[in-house]
Amino acid sequence: MKKTHLVLSLIALFMITSCGPGKNAVKVDPYIGAWSILIENTPQGDVSSTMTILKNEANEYTGNVVSDVGAFELSNLNITDNKISANFVVQDLDFDITGTFESTVFKGFISGMGEDYTANGNKIVE
Predict the structure, then answer these.
(1) In the prediction, which pLDDT does 90 show?
(2) What does the mean pLDDT of the chain come to?
(3) pLDDT tens readout for residues 42-71
(4) pTM, full prediction
(5) CATH says 33-123 is which class?
(6) Over the chain, what HEC string results?
(7) Torsion-angle region of residue 17: left (phi > 0), alpha (psi -120 to 50) or beta?
(8) pLDDT, tens digit, for every residue of 65-95?
């Protein structure tokens, strides 16, 4: 009888430790990935683009924007508290991207040439 209780106790202990909250889940960075963004009312009209955000070996954000008017590397990319800021160059003109991530939604602006253009989109879920 004591052996049965001991075996059942060991089984219960094994189940508690293997299924319990002690397991560490890998946290996925919500910003990494591709974002489909529409930049509205530019001199070229509405511009469809894809912003891709990655992290390098130094754990720093890197990224680029590919659009109807070309591909551009993001520099000075910073993401803090769901907010992004970065710079890029189009035809020797400096532009800034700023915005906010809300789950899988991006709301922001592209600024350059003294103008601000609305840039909104969604994360591309693969």
Answers:
(1) 87
(2) 87
(3) 988 999 999 999 999 999 999 999 998 899
(4) 0.77
(5) mainly beta
(6) CHHHHHHHHHHHHHHHHHHCCCCCCCCCCCCCEEEEEEEEEECCEEEEEEEEEEECCCCCEEEEEEECCEEEEEEEEEEECCEEEEEEEECCEEEEEEEEEECCEEEEEEEECCEEEEEEEEECCC
(7) alpha
(8) 999 889 999 999 999 999 999 999 988 999 9
- Two structure tokens written together for 15: 């189940």
> Comparing 31 with 23, which gets the higher pLDDT?
31
* CA neighbor of 97 nearest in space, from 88, 106, 50: 88
* Residues contacting 48, CB < 8 A, separation 6+: 36, 37, 38, 67, 68
- For 102, list phi and psi in degrees, rounded to 5: -130, 95
The burial of 87, by beta-carbon neighbours within 10 Å (0-12 exposed, 13-18 middle, 19 or more buried), is given as middle
CA distances from 112 to 6, 32, 68 (A): 73, 25, 17
CA distance 44 to 95: 15
